[in-house]
Structure formats: C-alpha cells, structure tokens
Design brief:
This protein is mostly beta strands. The protein is built from no helices and ten strands.
C-alpha cells in the first residue's frame, strides 16, 4: 500500500498548533494617535463557501505614514506594532482594530493612498497570497500601485464603510470567481 500526498493535504491547517500566541487582533492600542478603525471581513473560496482556517497578516504604516521599521519613527510609540495576525473563524470571518494609516512614499516620489499590506495563508495553497486593502479617500485614484490594477478590478481592493457603525469598514477576500480579489506577485 502506498501513502501518497493528495493535493488537499499539501499545507496545514496547522496554523493553530503552536501559533495562537502570535494572533494579534489589535494592531494599535486605544492610546495610539490616529483615527480608530475596525476592519471586519470574510475569506471565501471560489464557490462562495467560507474559508474557516485562513490566517490574515497585516502590515501598515501609522497615522503619520511611518512604518515601525522607519528610523524616523521614535521608539516612544510602543502602542503601535504595525503588524497583526488574524485567524478566520468557522464562517471565514475576521476582525481587527487599528488606526487609519497615513500616505506613504511610493515609486517616483508619488505618495500611495492609505492602505494595508495583506498576506493570506491557508490550507491548499503552497504560496501565500499577497494583496492590499485600501480605504475610500480623495487620493485613491492617483495611487501609483492601484493604477497598475485594471480599473474594473480595483474595487476588490477597496474596503466599504459600514454606515451604521462609524469607523467600521468591511472587506471581502474572494479567492476565485468573477469578483476575485486582486493578488500581487512578490
């Protein structure tokens, strides 16, 4: 009898074994300067079913547009890590709190609109998926990275404000299909 690996067994779901201590749903504490935000979303597969065992990693700048790795960022901001790791629940949902990032320098001196860099890990994929989540704002149309995305697909990268919940945004990550989220090659 031969025990061969099948495609659905290629990766995990091992994210909860020994990694739970790395989960961080609060990227910025309540004392971090900036506009407080709640991001809520779902990860769904190509059939529209929830992905219950994905892990979302977030990297972002602070409200001034500085990353914690910037030498200009004073070490007096211990309330802001700029990083979070969020697991999805049984319905593919995730939620985290942070502050709205400021614009950061981009190619050719142009500024990038406020955004989060996002990495998705889950069973069945050998390479992590990398994308961005943008906030609706006045500069989004001129963002140099978003300009690289075909116009009809840009909406997959833009979070939607929840009118009845001030400071809350929703963002759906669709892994396949007509509204598949744009993923970037790294």
């Amino acid at each position: 009898m031969s025990l061969q690996t099948t495609t659905w067994q290629t990766v995990g779901p091992f994210f909860s074994i020994g990694l739970d201590h790395l989960n961080t749903v609060q990227i910025a504490s309540t004392s971090t300067p900036g506009e407080r935000l709640m991001i809520a979303g779902r990860v769904i597969d190509g059939k529209g079913d929830p992905v219950p065992d994905a892990v979302i990693e977030i990297w972002q700048a602070n409200a001034e547009g500085q990353f914690v790795t910037d030498t200009a960022l004073e070490p007096t901001l211990p309330t802001f890590t700029g990083f979070g790791r969020i697991p999805t629940d049984g319905e593919g949902r995730f939620r985290f709190t942070t502050v709205r990032p400021g614009p950061v320098p981009g190619p050719n001196g142009a500024f990038q609109s406020p955004h989060l860099a996002v990495r998705i890990m889950m069973r069945g994929i050998l390479r992590d998926l990398v994308t961005r989540m943008y906030f609706p704002c006045e500069t989004i149309g001129s963002d140099p990275i978003l300009q690289l995305v075909p116009e009809q697909r840009r909406q997959t990268l833009i979070a939607v404000p929840v009118p009845e919940k001030e400071g809350t945004f929703e963002w759906k990550i669709e892994l396949q299909g007509a509204r598949e989220t744009v993923f970037f090659d790294c």
